[in-house]
Amino acid sequence: MLKTGLLASLALLAAAGTAPALAQGIGVAAAVNQSARGLPPGQAVRTIALGDNLIFDERIDTDTVGLVQILLSDGTAFTVGPNSSITIDRFVYDPQAGTAKVTASLTKGVFRFVGGKTSKTPGGVTLNTPVGTVGIRGAVADIDLQGQGGGASGVPPHISLIFGKEVVLTCGSAVCGRLYQPGYSLAFSGGQVRTVRTPAGWASRIQSSLAGGAGTSGGSRNPPTEGYVAANPFERTNSGVSVTLNRVPLPTPRPELVPAQLVDVAEATNDTVRQEIVATVTEAPDGSDGGDGGDDGGGDGGDGGGDGGGNGGDGGGGDGDGDGDGGGGEVPSVTRSFRVQTARVGSQQPSGRTGGSAEADGLADLVLSADGTLATGTFGARALTLPVRDSRTLTGWNIAAGSGASLGGLPLTGTLYTDKEGFSAYLLAEQGDIARPVVALTGTTTPASVLTGTDLRRYALTRDPIQASALPFTLNYGLGEAGALVSDLLVLEQPSGPGRVLQTSLQVQGSGPTQKSLLSVNVGALLVNEGGGPYVFARRGGSLRAEGEAIGLYLGGQVASLAGADASAGSLFGSDGSNFLITEEQSRPLGYFDTLAYGGGTVSDYATTHVADLQSEVAGLTRSLDLRQGFAAGVIDAYDGYTNGSPVLHNDLFRNFDPERVFVDFDAAAASLRAQFEVYNVYAVTGGAPRFSIAFGGTAQDRVRSAYVDDRTFAAVENGDNANTRFRRTDTNLGASGNPNSYLVSSRAIPNVETTAFLQGKTLCECRFLEWGFWGMQAEFRRQSGTTQVGFHMGAFVTGDITAAADLAPLAGTTATYAGHAVGSVRSAGATYLAAGQMAASIDLGSRNGRVDVTGFDGRDFGAAVGGLSGPSARFSGAIDTPNLVGSLDGALVDNGAIPAAGLIGGFDVGTGDRSWTATGIVAGQRN
Fold first, then answer.
1. Phi, psi of 200 (to 5 degrees)
2. Which one of 55-64, 72-81, 295-304, 409-418 scores highest in mean pLDDT?
3. CA-CA distance, 504 to 483, in Å (whole number)?
4. In this structure, what are the phi and psi dihedrals at residue 201, rounded to the nearest 5 degrees?
5. How many domains does the chain have?
6. Residues 6+ apart with CB under 8 A from 230
7. Is 845 found in the same domain as 707?
8. Do 641 and 785 have their domain in common?
């Protein structure tokens, strides 16, 4: 029999009169697989055995097979796995008050913590680990620090919430991670903390470590043999007793919630503990008073005579019948409230658009069937029936014609997505006709307070069921599946003010004149509505070139999350904001619209719908950038109505020559940015050099047009003030006449960008101290004598911290070499397409004289001898000197923090003398 902590303390003090005064007992070793050793303060190392008393500040170490369970006197237990080390620094227990506090240091290894009174006391558990300080409230948690100690398992250090309320991780003085849902873990990698669903392998690894190895016995000196077990008479008082005498309670089967006739959908395996749905209970229709019949197991049914059957009361009675004088009452019905939308009235078909009017958007209170598998009621004047399902993680259920789903007597088919806490999103169609979509939504909304930290949330998006595009928020445009790179939808929490939202997609197929390319950039904010509920909003940006000779098509419109039945509560669902449904921003008449660079062609009146599922939360992001300058380049699609009164089509090269003309200004505190690119026609020789000054990101009053997630992940769309995007030449200085539809995005905001078609086989610069990516713009500029319509599809940019020329003086006489890549656009044989190559440079840091060469760019090699330019910045310039090619290259050296000239950036234009092949782009590289 185990001693209590108090008796253990007394026995220890009586037996060790010479022990230090602080050698106070705290608990016992409830199970031991040797070897486990203890080092009490001021004493010799001892081997711990079953039943040994443990004292303050005693460090307990286990070897490769060691295992110890420490049982504190309040019921708190630590299970210490192999190759582990723990010290109980402090333990205070007040049995009368029912409070306890423990502080322990976990240095390495694997542990399971099971809270007693400590985890029920506010601030009662403090676990110091190499990755931070862990606080646990009312929970069971696994802690794996083996990766911290250099283990080769490939599993990162992590903390998993197995059961209970909350685990909080503090890094320094700030909270850097929190778990409030079982089945999730905090994982540590690269100095960052991520919140992830616990992989099955992690749980089984810890369970295996804590189960004890073969041949161990938990400390028992006389482990039972098979013969001993066979001869033991225990069954005479347990399993050998007849059922009649034993009175073993037999459980009743739980109702099957998934009918066999409904298509099977495998639910992802997950040990997450589900929270029950909070349902609304309506009054019994035939009883004025349901009575008190239920709670105490057989009370009076009340005057109304409702069926008062309830759970057995404390006295142990069975279900109460409670039939009162009125008789004939019915069991109270359970309802759920749904937001329901049908096809938008007047929309072109099939558009995927829903809602937009009282006729097509409203609420429906549906009553659950007795077995909980169907919800029935009305939407408007039509009967509505929806199947009801539940799952622990996001699960898609195929709603087939025989599922019972219907609206106005017509069957509904499609997909139902479910997740924890009753989240259900129905993406259906009447009689399978995608021209008649039906959307329904219900669940427990998320408090805005959950979303006011600093974490980055990553949400995966489901496919739109109608538009059949591999990319969210776009039409297919004939691109199919090949080459699609799709990011999660990123939501960056902000402690005050709007959070940031970013989602990107890239699809490039082929090379040369037949190449197809589509870039989608969606930027916005996490906002709060008038009722205090959170919602997600973003502006669409990006562009498409369906083939090399096609005019660019530019993406526009807005997206937003859809609110549930209570619009004021917002449109995120789950206690941790785990899900939402996102579609077009429905107050706008056009839906999504995609516009040609010129000619007035527009693809509009369509939308997509996606379910967002939280994948992880990441803390500790780095946002250290401020003002960055550099180079931008692109090929224009232009219709110019100004040239001698006769419209002219242009496909000229544009870029800047001075890095001060291209800048990105980052605001780390607001997680936002603003940018201005001024690019010039490199071939203009008369009328002044035509140029465009293009603004990106919000103004000081409107910062939701950009997202600065971290130093490698950022994007922006149009500035919001048309006057900030301008067309200039000698006789012209015009602001855009409408939305300029501009965008920029860092390359690393696109997942696996190096695998896209035109970058495959290229070695990209991994320079973390400079930023490169893509940009675009479509706008119209008007005056009385004509209109200019222009578009830039997927131009390239690069920026960095330009080195001061004075900082290179100590490096005079030093020659530095650089290696990196070139990215840009080619104009050839009437087609425009993307290309890339390698860059190599050798620069004398004192004079900035040297050479820059580009190889393998659209099958061509070219280069320039460059010389340093006067001025405060470390700039250089030179003419392309490759035979049969003309052009120029401008560049600058950039710093990596305190290291001057750590990188090289630049812009170039190059072509044949007859301009049958021309190209423009950027170069980026780091010092070898």
1. -60, -35
2. 409-418
3. 14
4. -65, -35
5. 4
6. none
7. yes
8. yes
